[in-house]
Amino acid sequence: MDIYLVGGAVRDALLGLPVQERDWVVVGATVEEMLAGGYRQVGRDFPVFLHPQTHEEHALARTERKTAPGYRGFEVHAAPDVTLEEDLERRDLTINAMARDDQGRLIDPFGGQADLQAQRLRHVSPAFAEDPVRILRVARFAARLGPLGFSVAPETMDLMRRMVAAGEVDALVPERVWQETERALAGPGPSRFFQVLRECGALAVLFPELDRLYGVPQPPRHHPEVDTGIHTFMVLDQAERLSRDPVVRFAALTHDLGKGNTPRDILPSHHGHEQRGVVLIDQLCDRYRIPNRYRELARLVAGYHGHMHRVFELRSDTLAKTLEGLDAYRRPERVEGILLACEADYRGRTGFEERPYPQADYVRRAHARCLDIQARELVEQGLKGQAITQALRRLRIEALTELKQAHEARAAGDS
Ligand code: ATP
Ligand code: MG
Fold first, then answer.
1. Would the CB of 62 count as within 6 Å of ligand 1?
2. Ligand 1 centroid vs 23 CA: distance in angstroms?
3. Which of 11, 65, 76, 96 to mutate to test the pocket of ligand 1 (most atoms within 8 A of CB)?
4. Ligand nearest to the CA of 6
5. Which is it for strands 23-27 and 57-60: parallel, antiparallel or unpaired?
6. Beta strand 106-107 with 99-100: parallel, antiparallel or unpaired?
7. What is the pLDDT of residue 386?
8. Residue 261: which of 282, 244, 240, 275 has the closest Cα?
9. How far apart are CA 57 and CA 76, in angstroms?
10. Which end of the chain is more exposed for a tag (fewer CB within 10 A), N or C?
11. pLDDT score of 45 more than 80
12. DSSP per-residue codes, 116-175
């Protein structure tokens, strides 16, 4: 049998990027030979094995034939007579369809290296159209390699458009959509991922609540960029600068979903968009079974970003209630993520990109003061039950009033 290094490891090494994991393909072997060699079979649908020592993935060379819609609708043919070239041909992009043999020689039948040099994401063959997951992968590679100058080849974009028009994207299973989206959110250039989906029409199918934001106006005084879709992706870009956490970035992405169904007669005002947004976030998270940590932060940012921006104007009791609404006492660690997403929202506007966001620091101080006020002391004073809750709230409002007065005095002194 012959074993070749394939896929991302070959690509990333040629790009000078760190290699994260290595995938191998085995030519000329049977399942029985692999098992006899101590490999452990893991693939349910394909003959994929783990190496007995390195535990790296080794797949038998295979060809695939589309038999039904959806990503399980493949007939897989793995046998010792399948050649390396045939295996490479079923892969998605030319830059992912190169192999290296045990002498270190590059095998590149589809021009992957030339496409690396031209920074081109190009499909290997028309069989690309058989698996809609590839659209998500192309969008993700466009995001990840975008900073290196990569873009989607026009003929590949055309093919993706035709796939979307043919309804291929409807067959994607929710888990795969979220898996690729989460990886895109965690990596560089996440908004590029969504832009590529938009260009081929997949955004309207997969994330209609995002697609719909394009063309929705906002008041130019607060939003010189006007268009809510443009704003949303400026916010995601800012979130990328401010935090590596995909949970924060997701909250930034979804903070204004409610603007997508504002009644037309009140535009460009968006009264009530916060609550409408929370409903849409729930629908989105249900649809893709998005983990709760994403849903919870996104709901809070959608619901409270307006309060955060206006924190200097809030009454102390309103701020106290807001902190309660954010569950800031039981889940203090979450406040930082909320503030980062709100800062991204504030700076995600034309001309606001470098502006300071003093609101965040103020909320941090308000939160710290309120956290200092502990129920334990009230219990020691002999208070019980409801009386403790009421006394806590009263003491917090007092602390917030003090903070507000000090802030206003300082602001008056400055001017
Ligand atoms: P990453 O750095 O994200 O791991 P990768 O290219 O190695 O990138 P994998 O998911 O590990 O991605 O897949 C390994 C290889 O298998 C890819 O390089 C590609 O050749 C092929 N491949 C993976 N998924 C598909 C798919 N849906 N359609 C066609 N080929 C695929
Ligand atoms: Mg890989």
1. no
2. 9
3. 96
4. 1
5. parallel
6. antiparallel
7. 87
8. 275
9. 18
10. C
11. no
12. HHTTEE-BSSGGGGG-THHHHHHHHHHHHHGGGT-EE-HHHHHHHHHHHHTTGGGG--HH
Place of tokens 């998005």: 290
CB 110 within 8 A of CB 86: no
Residue identifier of the C-alpha nearest atom 2 of ligand 1: 8
Distance 125 CA to ligand 2 centre (A): 20
Determine the distance separating the centroid of ligand 2 and the alpha carbon of 32, expressed in angstroms. 25
Q: Which residue's CA is minimally distant from atom 1 of ligand 1?
A: 8
User: Which sign does the torsion angle of CA 270, 271, 274, 279 carry?
Assistant: negative
Inter-residue long-range contacts of 154-163, CB under 8 Å, 24+ positions, other chains counted: 155/122, 155/123, 156/93, 156/121, 156/122, 156/123, 156/128, 157/199, 157/200, 159/123, 159/126, 159/128, 159/129, 160/135, 160/200, 160/202, 161/200, 161/201, 162/129, 163/129, 163/132, 163/135, 163/200
375 pLDDT above the threshold of 90: no
Q: Which amino acid would we find at residue 365?
A: R
295 lines ligand 1 (CB under 6 A): no
Ligand 1: residue whose CA is nearest its atom 6: 8
Cβ of residue 192 lying under 6 Å from some atom of ligand 1: no
pTM beyond cutoff 0.85: yes
What is the number of alpha carbons within 13 Å of residue 223 lying toward its C-beta? Answer: 20
User: What residues have their beta carbon closer than 5 A to ion ligand 2?
Assistant: 8
Only one residue has tokens 């892969």, namely 91
Encode burial over 157-195: b for 16+ CB neighbours within 10 A, e otherwise: bebbeebbeeebbeebeeeebbebbbbbbebebbbbbbb
In a 3-state reduction of DSSP, which class is residue 414? helix
